[in-house]
Protein 1
Amino acid sequence: MIKEAQTEPKVEWYINAFEKFEKSLNGDKEIPFHAVRKKAIEKFQQLGFPTTRIEEWKYTNIKPILDQQFGTIDKPQKIDKSNIDNYRIKGIEENLIVFVNGQYIDEFSHITLSSKNLVIKSLSRAFRENPDLIKKHLTHYASYTEEPFVALNTAFTREGTFIYVPDDTVLDAPIHVINISDPGQTTFQSHPRNLMIIGKNSQVSLVETLNHLSDNVYFQNSVTEVLVRENAIVDHIKIQDESKLSFRIATTQVQQEQSSVYHTFSIDLGGALVRNNLNIGLNGENAEANLFGFYFINGKQHLDNHTNIDHLVPNCNSNELYKGILDDKSRAVFSGTIFVEKDAQKTNAFQSNKNLLLSNEAEIDSKPQLKIFADDVKCSHGATIGQIDDEALFYLRQRGVSLEDAHILLRQAFASDVFEKIRIPAAKEYINQLISERLKSEI
Amino acid sequence: MLKISNLRVAVENTEILKGIDLEVKPGELHAIMGPNGSGKSTLANVLAGKEEYEILNGSVTFKGHDLLEMAPEDRAREGLFLAFQYPVEIPGVSMANFLKQAVNEIRQYRGQESLNARTFLSTMREKLNLVQMDEKFISRSVNEGFSGGEKKRNEIFQMAMLEPSLAILDETDSGLDIDALKIVADGVNKLRTKDNAFIVVTHYQRLLNFIVPDFVHVLYQGKIVESGDKELALHLEEYGYDWVKEEAKEQQAVEE
């Protein structure tokens, strides 16, 4: 058991870091949003860091993060273009937004999508060029008054991806956001802030990849706010392959209006300690949320997936399936809560978490929860934990398949059904190949 | 091809096989019969390389190799095939992928080139025909949701695909209705050549009406207590296993 950190001095350290950050802002301090940053850091100071005594953080001790003192990188890091090319996805290369160490890199980014009033750009530019949209939406969905990591992110908010899709706009090509971490010799923290506003009857696909060039220590604390308006459809894929020495807290807050669809797929491969908070509010009737996830971790990696789906109104659907493979001494947490509020009759909600443990020392804490306050609903949830089936292994070997290949086949077989849920064909192919290689290389 | 000498095997410290001697030559079909619990399936599994068995004594050579030293996949690649009594369901692994991998790993071991997609497909169609299985089976997961009869036919189909030199059929007849039994037997008969050999493990004589054995052995309490030709199987059908048990008891009394 890792000892709980004394969080107060750590909070103090981040307050000081904020003061330094403020000084580095120069002109950026003049924007109206700076007042929000100041409110957020005050709020953060009151909230402090969560400890394992809080139910929501029971299985994830953030002491390893608090033990570090991260620098900040305020200038874009020079990296070679070939590094970007390595992470491009065949078939979705037309629209690219590139960040290195949390800094937007204009020369590598290009957007070919165009439509009247469509905005796809870095958040820093949006602060200057779209102040009204920022004022109307930023911080309106993810609460910085309750969640300390959201408060911390809000205080340090400066850069990220900003997507505004007006009503009745179908974007036929997916947008690829490439995040690359390459801290060189120093450690750094970054607080990416993403905002996606998807208008009525509109459609957009987004693929985020998070990669690293070197195995280094850094801390990312990201917040993504998504508003899916009436009858809009969003496909959102995230492939996290960060350094195995890095730390990551990622909060995604989605608000869905009537008849909207939010379809998300999260893959986690990297990180020493990763916590994903995915919160979905179904606020309009007939809205549908589909949450899929896959993780493959080993060594001493710690991955915590927290999802909350809030059915606030009647006739909404949610489907959730997270599958994971754990090796060595890795540890995963799955905590999925489905709230069905009193008025949310005729809710359909399904949730499942399945795990394959390759080692006796790997650990999964799986906690699917239903909190139902309506009486006419269809809900189910479940969790399974299994190991490679020795009988199946022998059967495959008896047919001439090597022990190693039999293991790979069975791992792929375990994961295969969840990948069927990816709806962007080019991304699906990329992911299948990536996972298949990873399952082979780590045998 | 296969020579088993004084093979003694234990499971969890209980001796199951108590000195088996058996020789199988190319072109021969041996039936191993015996009451439940006599060690028939243990023998089949030990030959295929299942790991939970402890070899106490004896040796098994297969085409001149020390079989007991070989990994299960190498036994398969050398041409040993086990049709499982209880074929395992493997959700998420399609029949087509699995067989392509198996066929090509075996071919690679034998220094042959991989089959191209077209040849593979046409071979598969031909062999499916042999056991009257529909082509749609190949896109399904291995054995998942197959009926008992389909599972057994699938074993014979795989045997046809892999063309083993020694096939061991472990109670392939159990649970089959007469039509399925005929299909399975017909498949086996079509695959018999002067170069390959079969060991058919069965409790009942019924299968041997359709697959005619060259030799019949009776396994009882971990030993082969009788050997003969196909007449021995008919005798067992008529008189059951009681006389075998009686004789074994007398034999034991003499030894003591």
Protein 2
Amino acid sequence: MATELTPRQRVFLNEIFSAAAAAVSDKISRWTGHSFTVQFLDIGYAPLSGIAEAAGGSDLYSVATLLPVQSTVQGYVLFIFPELSAQVFVDLVFNRTIGESQAWGEAEQSVIIETGNILGSTFMNILARAIGKPIATSTPLFLIDYTGSIIQQVVMEHALMGDEAMLARTRFSKDDLDFEEYFFFIPAPGFLAAVDACLDARESGAGR
Amino acid sequence: MTTKIMLVDDALIMRMMLRDIIRQLADCTIVAEAGKPELVMPLFREQQPDIVCLDLTLDDSQVPAGITLLAEIKRANPAVRVAIISALEQQEITDQALALGANAYITKPFNSGEVAATLHRLAVMA
């Protein structure tokens, strides 16, 4: 059974993810030079086996970046784009005609990797501010495969620390384009204990 | 006199964007590029740049590799100006970089005007 968030954990994480969505909207718009809106919908834990379904289905061909997170908070940030959305994204960054990017050369992969870096770091910057400790990230990895296989690779090679992911449902939209992107945070066990410690410290500070 | 610039970023797209910006700057030239931390110091010693544009997240080390490299670069030549260009925007990390001698801290995604103005400022600091 997936972990249930306590009410105060949910409030805290809602605040962080709402702030992160606003910051990501700004960063992604600056990065692509086009106005994007990122809306945070809800948050909860889900079994890793459920991620593929949440990201459009196992059989969807997708591109992903996996951003390792270390230091105070440990885990992974995973962004999954259906391949067509990822290609649109690359077109926007390179200022190409939509539909022009078809192959995944080094430059195109680099756009997706850097997108994972910028967006994942933006989220971690906000989390670091909230918990009052620095959080370092590592170089993101580029993955391309069916969503189900991507998740399998992540589970087998990386997410050895737990069997569930924090699923923050977000909606990325751009006025005139169909665009999908899915965001997952796979924290190491102990993340919620760190959240509780932070909330306890805040409450005892406020009570003084 | 031409200002020699070195680019350090693991992301090709970032190096491409920086190349485009620097190409527009008078009296600046790129003398070296490194995408991996282990390439940085040998290239730095060989090319002796005046300015280094340095990303922080270059590998999976616990302390961002750019922080370690910044210290090495400043030890090798304290006169070199270093502009950190990173997606990390956290007070402790920024403070650490500035304490180690970074001359500028630019956050990604950057604005080309901001990068150009920073590089111009660092070029005339000599």
